[in-house]
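hey so i finally got around to running both of the ones u sent me last week. sorry it took forever, my laptop kept dying halfway thru and i had to restart like 3 times lol. anyway pasting them below in the order u listed, first the sequence line then the structure token line for each. didnt double check formatting much so if smth looks off just lmk and ill redo it

first one:
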Amino acid sequence: MIVQEIEYTLKDGRKALIRSPKEEDIPGILDYLQRSSGETDYLLRYPEEWSRYTVKGAKERFERINASENGAMLVCLVEGKVAGNCQISWDDLIKTRHRASVAIALLKEYWGQGIGTRLLQELIRIAEENEKLLQIELDFIEGNSRARALYEKMGFRITGVGVNAVRLKDGTLLNEYHMIREIQR
């Protein structure tokens, strides 16, 4: 699904734009994916694991999700540079079509500017406009207190834990927490 563009001002005064991804964003998105995954242990991929994500694959993915009726991807651009992105998706299976899944990530240099809040607000708006959806779900990795605080601020609550769900390169095992936010109508 294509979303209407949103222009707004960050806490530090810079201008930001949130919109559906376009083909012109591919180089910036590919760079962002590798950089963001190298800045924290709280994303599910290491930078080298993005090498399989090609320009052709990104183009096909953007076209597929922009044409989809079951989800949306948003990219946040700050002064023309990719600062982060997020996605919401759901399926049409009768037993699970009431659930949407979301994911979000930002480059570290943009943390604390309100981008995560603004992106999640837009994902929640998308979910609330779909009468079939009753809840939004996400996961975060143990130790990611910034993400947990954001999610709780936005109305999510922990509903489960995947014990030792993530194993870092150094062998450290981390739990993954599942959260939901019921849709308010």
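and the second one:
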Amino acid sequence: MSLEKILSISGKPGLYHLKNQTRNGFLAESLLDGKKISVNSRHNMSLLSEIAIYSLTEEVPLRKVFAKIYEKENGGEAINHKVSKDELEEYFFNVMPDYDEDRVYASDIKKVIQWYNLLNKNGYTDFSEEETEEDKQE
């Protein structure tokens, strides 16, 4: 299962799996409790596949960051996202040593780790590159 249909909705906790499109928006299922909600298209939503983390040289797609955490933890859960700011930054530095400390805040790191653990718990562990239409045709 890929990140193409996983989204974050501002003002709502956790992550959501995009199920269907409706006339006014989307039907999504919470990864926290499995409840389905109707999301109006006016809500601020972000697909995880479109989010990136700043590094000193480039923007690294979130799926690559998740893959590095997955590799570091041998497929297990990462540290708890509620640990201290210093512990979060130290952990993230071990995962991604070249992240831009001026543009990636502790709150961002906390969210990345929380999302990783939620995805891992729900079996979303395929962080490989998405196939483009060109790849499928070849």
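quick thing i noticed on the 2nd:
Helices lie at 62-72, 85-95, 106-121, 133-137.
anyway thats it, ttyl
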